[in-house]
Task: structure prediction
Amino acid sequence: MTDSHTLDVSPDQPDQPEPVRADERFALHPMERRFLFVDVAAQRAKQLRKGALNRLTLAAAAGDTSIRDVGQKPERVAMEEVRRGFVQYELPDAARKAVPQEG
Result:
């Protein structure tokens, strides 16, 4: 992306895998915040194509029975990871001010 709106999506580090847990604070539903969902999922899919670990598979191997098979395509895996909250992201300050706060 060449504009000033960039997202910081934490990359996977294969050397030291973290415990795989979903965080509800980062869960995005595609119909609520669709542009943010698409941006985060696209960056996560890029990481998966470059060899990042599939967090859904890791969570299923760790015993999470709620994980369903979404296939092997990086885009589908990334969308499910973002929807469930497996991907942490950070909004730039300007974008954070534009997002209405729930209260």
About this structure: The first strand starts at residue 8 and ends at 9. DSSP finds four helices and two strands in the chain. The chain has a mean pLDDT of 76.
